[in-house]
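[step 3/7] inverse_fold.run input=structure_tokens len=88
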């Protein structure tokens, strides 16, 4: 089983860029609760700080761009992948 983390970058103008990362291993309910407890306001995080990729827009606009991403969903499914980070 593997886990897919879906998260979203949204700028102040509400333009959105979906992000996701698949990690090897099935995330437990306890791990999900721990992840959620670490999110700012129960929703926001900075992917780079926890080793996840960040996809934003090609051009940076300091008036609307910011560092936060919103956690969208966590999905578990039985597929095998090679070269994907292991869950701790």
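[step 3/7] decode complete -> sequence:
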């Amino acid at each position: 089983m593997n886990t897919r983390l879906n998260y979203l970058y949204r700028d102040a103008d509400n333009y959105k860029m979906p992000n996701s990362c698949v990690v090897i291993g099935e995330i437990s309910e306890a791990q999900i609760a721990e992840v959620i407890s670490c999110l700012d306001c129960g929703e926001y995080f900075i992917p780079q700080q926890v080793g996840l990729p960040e996809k934003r827009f090609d051009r940076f606009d300091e008036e609307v761009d910011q560092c936060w991403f919103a956690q969208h969903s966590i999905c578990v499914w039985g597929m095998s992948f090679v070269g994907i980070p292991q869950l701790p």
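[step 4/7] annotate
Residues 22 and 45 are 17 Å apart (CA to CA).
The radius of gyration is 14 Å.
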